[in-house]
Give the backbone structure.
Amino acid sequence: MKTLLKRTLLVSAFAVQALAASAAHAFDVGIVAFQMSSETHARVANAAAEAARAKGWTVTQLNAEGSLPKLAEQLDTLVNKKVDAIVIAMGKPVETDAQLQAAKEKGIPVVGVMSGASPHMLFDVEVNEYATGAQSVLYLLGKMGYQGNILSARFDGNSGTRIRGKMLDAVLTENTAVKDLAKFSMARTQSWRDDVRNGMQALFLRHQGQFKGVWASFDGQAYVIDDLLQSQGMKKGDITLVSVDGGPETYRRIADPNSLITATMMIPFEQLGASAIDSIDRIVVKKEPKEKVASGPYLFMDSVLVDASNVQKFLQPAAK
């Protein structure tokens, strides 16, 4: 009887130890944002971190501060740490191919958000940038009556904004009554606001009175452009200013009678970040087949046009 009791106690003790060991290892996810000073990068990364913590996961959140070497270094750190999964907000799959390959070889699943595809990642969660870019341009041209000149602010350093710029060019080839007088390409990611301010100021001075619209590849550029145009005495309706991203500040400006921002294509950044975590939970934790979550290298979500006709609907949540 005593022997049976001892065995029972030993089995119970081992069971408790096993449970304790299992509980001690919470699922560990690394979340890297390319540049947290960019509102959209921060929105994705913070939403992903919040969703992960809500599941009881351990979160290692990093900021590459717009530096490719730092991004690569941080990915190396997460791979060497052997985290259970990695989420990259606005990453650079081509430039960090070696790090992504190392993660795959060590069995660490990686999900990108608005980063572009990689054979070493599960997939990238994003909106369809081709459709989003085209719709933003067509809205701008529609407000201009499909004739007149525009100026454009671009950024080729990110796959999403680069695609939007290419869609601008594609639409213009079929609408030859509209001409892009001059394009500014943002280069310095770490001081991008000054870069945009200086570059667009030069274009405005050179082409004063010659353009009816301005297209910006993302809302942050549009804020700088809006402030510049307002400082020059321009008022809402003088030109059409359209961009892409969406967010409380953009909606405020669309509703503001003094702002020149006319519309934006709203990208649901918080939903993208949360979806990346949900996808990892389904595939890695719950062992669902990847094909049930995404059938290819992208998991698409919808973007929405926001202008004066519907901006109040988007302002309401921010006002609560």
